Queue: 3 jobs
Job 1
Amino acid sequence: MSASDAHRTIETVWRMEAPKLIAGLARLTRDVGRAEELAQDALVAALKQWPEEGVPHNPAAWLMQVAKHRALDAARHEMMARRKQEEIGLDIASEGPAAPDLDEALDDEVGDDLLRLIFTACHPVLPKEARLALTLRLLGGLTTEEIARAFLVPEPTMAQRIVRAKKTLSDARVPYEVPAGAELGERLASVLEVVYLIFNEGYAATAGQDWVRPTLCEEALRLGRILVARAPQEPEVHGLVALMELQASRLRARIGPGGEPILLLDQNRARWDRLLIGRGLAALERAQQLAGALPGPYLLQAALAACHARARTAEETDWARIVALYAVLGRVAPSPIVELNRAVAVGMAEGPAAGLELVEALAAEPALKRYHLLPSVRGDLLSKLGRHREAAEAFDQAVALTRNVKERALMEERAATARTAADSLPK
């Protein structure tokens, strides 16, 4: 095998196995920063040896074995330095009255380790931006450069953010565990929020050259599926996975040949992924069974996505049901953005005038002051009412607020179309 082939293999194996490797090491060290360093040591060893000696038969096991040896060496060194058997330099004895065998400590079920790592990376002690960055770094297998590019910040800024996040977790002595009791609900909500934020940034990028970033959607889905496997009785976990599966089913249809956005009602539904739709609907059914009469926000959003997924054409969409679901969602998770989405649905179900009335009532909402979709929705409803000059002005406002290059081009096009329609009207 050539050196270039070996490096490609290493890159592939690393992306697949790094989260499991870091998770196992973090359980041993109780320090995600140290765990990542040990995993990186194993990667460096692979980069040195595999091009010369060939890729081992089981690359993942090779990486784990090297990382184990590094962890054992570090533990023994610190044990000798401190002369405290019970500490072993990494506080391993805190797991119980007797220190476990270090080799066995790294052989726990991978799914449990990954779940612990998710809850650690998404701990509320970290600000939301840090949770996002650390989750993508440790569990998404993305490089600091890739994460920085995804969120449009300089690489040094992102590197500092990740370093601070790891230090914060270490200083706060955050337990490397899945919490129990009341704390589980609080922490689970944080985990689900981070996973969905990652998905949303992939589904509709807030800024940059690309409107969608499928890699982020794929990473969020992978994390969601891990959560489902390890928390199978939590309805909101199933609800979030259902929502992401259903939304991801449209990714291929969301962009045109030049990367331009294609809005929902204009999409070619033959390009929707029927397998993902089937998976999403099954996850939604499971969430509904578990939730009973108390649906959570992710379940409700999945139910909204299912309305679109079940409609074979845009004309068959059950807008009345969508309006009703948004009304429930507005009570369960009140938000100006939910109300804006409800206004869109009302505009489709009851006519643009009814929708516009709701949108105008949201104009003074502070949370929507810089939200580009408020004037965009307003412009769309005004266009449908034949008020084209006002629509053009609304789309101009949306252009000024939009940071995504492709979406800005779409708004500029809609503003121009509205202005042309206005100029064609009798004076």
Job 2
Amino acid sequence: MSGIAERLGAIRAGLPERVTLVAVSKTQPPEAVREAYAAGQRHFGENYAQEWRAKADALADLPELVWHFIGGLQTNKVKYLAGRVGYVHTLDRLELARELSRRFAARGASVRVLLEVNVAGEAAKAGCAPAEVGALADAVRGLPALELRGLMCIPPAEGDPRPHFAALRRMNEALGLPDLSMGMSGDYLAAVAEGATLVRVGTAIFGARAPRAG
């Protein structure tokens, strides 16, 4: 036994009903996803478009599986996702929003999107600046095939994440949006306490990640 089902059960037991657990399956083999699915998990997060595509093909027989794309997304990779993922958590610029809208609309599909916000203004981190969130949200709301659901962040690796989670919650409330994607294996309980509705948990479910091929 790998323990995936047991770890999932323990994490779920500590989450309120309003919170959706997104199992981050990047670098994990399809078999690990199948094991989590068999244990009742339905929402899975992936970071790399081409790795995700191969995995999604291998798991196409699982009818209730919902894919969340949670990694940095280049516009030239959007074509892989169109019509096949339910959520994109990392929308951070208008160019990407327009390409998502174009590609999903062409497939007769829609996608739920969250705006990634660089809450601490870290130079090496993706995400739009807090001051730009309102304008980007307005633009996304005007595009077909996109359903703006909320905001997402990854707080700085050092220090207390809660002030950053609280800041994102306030931004989200000002926009009147229902979802907050924040919290990973090391800080998801703090994120839940600050209002997260989507938590992205990988290592605490699947164990240490294997090195990424290539």
Job 3
Amino acid sequence: MIVFDLKCPQGHRFEEWFASSDDFENKLASHAVRCPECGEHHLEKAIMAPRVNGGAQAPAVGPCGQAACAAGPCAFAGS
């Protein structure tokens, strides 16, 4: 899966997930993706800030997958 930041001609920005770059291109060409605010289907990729791992360790996570749970009792336990 890949996520792209998209924008419409009215300047609305949103994220959308695709199976691949080809999936994005196919859905864009067939107008299967629309702006959630105005319904526009003429979209383009917005400038994205990629996540770059500078060698830092990923935060520890608890059994539920949340970083907040690693340091103590799970906030989601019993829910």
